[in-house]
Design brief:
493 residues, alpha/beta
Amino acid sequence: MSNSCATRLVVVSNRLPISLSRQEGRWTVTAGSGGLVTALAPVLMNRGGLWIGWAGAAADAELAPLLEDFSRDAGYDLRPVFLDEKDIAGYYHGFSNEIVWPLFHDLPSRCNFQPDYWRSYLDVNLRFAEATARHSRPSDYIWVHDYHLMHMAFVLRNMGVERQCGFFLHIPFPPPDIFLKLPWRGKIIRALLEYDLVGFQTLRDRRNFVACMEALVPGIRVAGRGNIVSIAWKNRQIRVGSFPISIDFNSFAGLATDREVVRRAEEIREALRHRRIILGVDRMDYTKGIPERLRAIRQLFLSHPELQEKMTFVQIAVPSREEIPEYSALKNEIEQLVGEINGQFTRPGWSPIHYQYRNLPRSELTAYYRAADMALVTPLRDGMNLVAKEYCAANVMESGVLFLSEFAGAATQLQKVGAVLVNPYDVEGTAKAIRRACFMDGRERRARMGRLRDSVRRNNIYWWVDSFLQAAFSRHLDDFPQETVDFRKPAYE
């Protein structure tokens, strides 16, 4: 960018938007494929943008030249933050995933409030802040993502580095009765108030944050109603809002009509003898409610034996955090349940549950979405849950039924347009909801799915980026050069 005073976007997240693999003793770098990368790469590309994050390998300096090569091809710069094994253990596995992750998902009994984890978390946030200060300039806008880096703006200000900073939390924010259990509660709240804009997935999360702030920070004043409110504190104005994240609708819908995906979807249906398919797709995590879902399937076949041999439940569990004992125990619990239920109901030519523990390529996953008659998306708690939106986008025949946990952030948007809400803890209620859907009129199914797809299409990932950046710049959109991002038209047009 020729104008050194122009505003660039600097994205900071725990991980860089890349995938690393080591082959024959050498690292290879490929582009990541997540929704965040899809949305932000066009904003950063060829406009001087930066992405700062952990490269994913423990303090391996040999990655630096590979990242430089990747940056040239991508059109924006990657700036790695290198962490050693001690950092990863304390900051990532420790504070982030043994304290914040369970607490913010309303599961405080799973927390390990180890004081050393807090010190490691602060040290690594300092490392990220130093990298941001070194590679950014005063006119840049710093957009920090997720719970790993809640302290970054606080550290920047303490270093005397003045930057406009926005923060988006991808997971839920808990209510005061949960959040106040955190030993470092006041420090976390005050650190978040050092950002200029704090974004959450839902209005409920935003209200929880405001309630915690009012309980912990004297002298604050909250003004405004609607999605975004203003907070006056220490001679500063901080905006707090809800910005529900989404997916690249056109990408999933287009892939669902690809000839190979259509052929693969038909193969899946034929392999299951054209029985009705109920689909679950989740990362292996205790917040996703997979054991409760399996118990609901067992209850369905117990209460309604007439549905046996007419329906098959397919559960795809994506490996995650396998080095953490709690996740290994969850995997064992799920596999034991699958074995018990299949042992109880299997008949010649039919098994009630098909369980896969692997990471599917995107085209294969989309084929499952297209083949499924129903999707069972029932987390115990989730910031948003994009599987629900991906299933709708891929359901191009508009004949599927989406069952959605009332504790998923996506329920706020999708319950009004056609999702069937269930309580994941209520296995009998979930079983009854599935049975009712089996007899749902075809016109009602098409009407529900049509409305769901329209909602996801309108509120896509590009809309999410635009809404956050508009809130970030308020009436000063010319601070962000027009050629960098056009706020007035959808990026997918």
